[in-house]
């Protein structure tokens, strides 16, 4: 069994843990967690969580800079609550970092464990000591309610940008068959500061809970897949609610971007027929 093999390797690496401590730790996580991360991440997370629990820390922020992969991994361990993921992504955007990938997990005892792979907007490694410290402080202030990402990012979006037309066709696809537990939403759009925050905040505004999120960027195109449910933990299957979700997410995809030129009209029509 794959999960058992992952746990066995992790247990062997955590030589300082007792069998009882390790069993208790494993019991806190749902199955997808064990298959989503490599062993190095699993080891770092286990030790970070153990220390945070021992010190009774309500918020733990850990940053691992990987020079070889040209990426920094930001891991946040905190008490889970509605809107937490959106606030995290907003804080990261306000700090000037670009999110390349995100993995969202919740434990069975109500904690959130989210990992973000971040870079500089130009693709460089996000490793400057002062910027990393500012990132941590911004996350702390945001989660404490002292800083509002929506307000900060609105000011940023008012500045002129090079994105003066659609270079990526916006698309919203909703699938209720891909997962037994969640409604799956795939979004394609133009990558820009606060992109992930705008999408996740739209879901929060719709009173939806994000169970998992997967992000990938391909040049200017950002592809995001959300696994969502309602606040009662159920899939969203009401047609009117699904229509509203699609409308609000499309608004978020288009926020701050000038309309496409008329020469793209035929292509737009074709894509709308495919997506509707």
Automatic annotation (TrEMBL):
EC numbers on record: 2.7.7.59
Any GO MF annotation of the entry: [protein-PII] uridylyltransferase activity
Keyword annotations from UniProtKB, A to Z: Hydrolase, Nucleotidyltransferase, Transferase
Ranges of residues in domain ACT: 73-158, 184-259
Pfam families: ACT
Coiled-coil intervals, chain numbering: none
SUPFAM superfamilies: ACT-like
Keyword Coiled coil: no
Cited HAMAP family: PII_uridylyl_transf
Protein name per Swiss-Prot or TrEMBL: [Protein-PII] uridylyltransferase / [Protein-PII]-UMP uridylyl-removing enzyme
Organism: hydrothermal vent metagenome
């Amino acid at each position: 069994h794959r999960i058992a093999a992952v746990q066995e390797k992790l247990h062997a690496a955590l030589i300082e843990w007792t069998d009882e401590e390790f069993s208790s730790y494993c019991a806190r996580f749902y199955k997808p967690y064990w298959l989503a991360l490599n062993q190095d991440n699993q080891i770092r997370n286990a030790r970070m969580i153990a220390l945070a629990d021992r010190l009774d820390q309500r918020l733990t922020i850990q940053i691992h800079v990987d020079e070889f992969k040209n990426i920094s991994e930001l891991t946040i361990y905190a008490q889970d609550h509605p809107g937490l993921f959106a606030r995290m992504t907003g804080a990261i955007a306000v700090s000037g970092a670009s999110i390349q990938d995100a993995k969202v997990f919740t434990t069975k005892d109500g904690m959130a464990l989210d990992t973000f792979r971040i870079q500089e907007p130009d693709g460089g490694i996000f490793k400057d000591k002062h910027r990393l410290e500012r990132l941590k402080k911004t996350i702390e202030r945001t989660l404490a309610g002292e800083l509002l990402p929506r307000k900060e990012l609105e000011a940023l979006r008012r500045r002129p940008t090079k994105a003066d037309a659609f270079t990526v066709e916006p698309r919203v696809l909703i699938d209720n068959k891909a997962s037994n537990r969640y409604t799956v939403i795939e979004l394609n759009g133009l990558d820009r500061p606060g992109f992930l925050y705008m999408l996740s905040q739209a879901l929060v505004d719709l009173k939806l809970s994000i169970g998992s999120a997967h992000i990938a960027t391909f040049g200017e195109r950002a592809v995001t897949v959300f696994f969502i449910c309602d606040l009662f933990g159920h899939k969203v299957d009401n047609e009117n609610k699904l229509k509203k979700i699609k409308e609000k997410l499309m608004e978020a995809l288009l926020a701050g971007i000038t309309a496409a030129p008329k020469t793209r009209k035929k292509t737009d029509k074709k894509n709308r027929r495919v997506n509707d």
